[in-house]
Amino acid sequence: MAGQGSTGQDSAGQDSAVLRDALGVGVAVGLSGFAFGVTAAGSGLSVLQICALSLLVFTGASQFALVGAIAAGGNPLTAAAGAFFLGVRNAFYGLRLSQLLALPRALRPLAAHWVIDETTAVALAQPNRRAARLGFTVTGLTLYVLWNLTTFLGAAGAEAIGDTRAWGLDAASPAVFLALLAPMLRSTTERVTAGLAVVLGLGFLPVLPAGVPVLVAALAAPAVLWLKGRRIGDRERTKGEDR
User: Fold this and answer.
1) For labelling alongside 118, which of 1, 181, 225, 242 has CA 20 to 30 A away?
2) Up-side HSE of residue 91: CA atoms within 13 Å toward CB?
3) 32-to-63, 79, 97, 119, 148 alpha-carbon distances in Å
4) Is 128 helix (H, G, I), strand (E, B) or coil?
5) Tens of pLDDT along 124-147?
């Protein structure tokens, strides 16, 4: 009996910790929808178009990339390509989460809409499937509601809010994402890939059209994997010669 009580208390404590983390991430990132709404309005999109992007696309980095490139005078096709390639990473998140969450088949299409950086990070940080499901659901629901609400408020009140850079709202989403990403870069390969992507993205930012540096930064992963594969191959050949 004492063991059962202790287990129940542990489970309740774990749920509280998951809820705290999930709500914290959801609220922090959800509020940055203000910045997206204002930025999108400044790029010439209507309130209806802006809200449709948040409701149907719902992946902040891709949305910011799209409207940011358009606002900077970039080609719409280039802007869309950059947003698309940023969004492709969610498909890889989905492959991992499908095994971790193991949701009923009927719920998977709905859950797929919430497969983004923040929900993935919170779910993967949990010690078991139950906690992962709870973290994913609470983060996704909180973020979806707040992101869409603040997107509308930002778009509708763009003139009153003014330049998001003066408020620092445009930095909220990247800052939270980096805070979630950093602890997950455990191996040397992951850290090198992330570092190279930063160098490529920032290095080409002044010389390439808006949206293109993101595509260049995506080359970091195959480049690092190719070099790693070549190093392993050389090592195996060396071992074979020694024998």
Assistant:
1) 225
2) 5
3) 12, 21, 25, 16, 10
4) coil
5) 989 899 999 999 999 999 999 999
Burial 112-136 (b: 16+ CB within 10 A, else e): eebbbbbbbbbbbbbeeeebbbbbb
Letter for the amino acid at 32? Answer: S
What's the whole-model pTM score?
0.68
* Residue 93 tokens, joined: 């998140």
Long-range CB contact pairs, 49-58, < 8 A, 24+: 50/151, 50/152, 50/155, 51/148, 51/151, 51/152, 51/155, 53/151, 54/147, 54/148, 54/151, 55/148, 57/87, 58/113, 58/114, 58/116, 58/144, 58/147, 58/148
Place of tokens 């050389």: 234
Residues 174-207 have pLDDT tens digits of 665 566 567 667 788 888 888 888 898 888 878 8
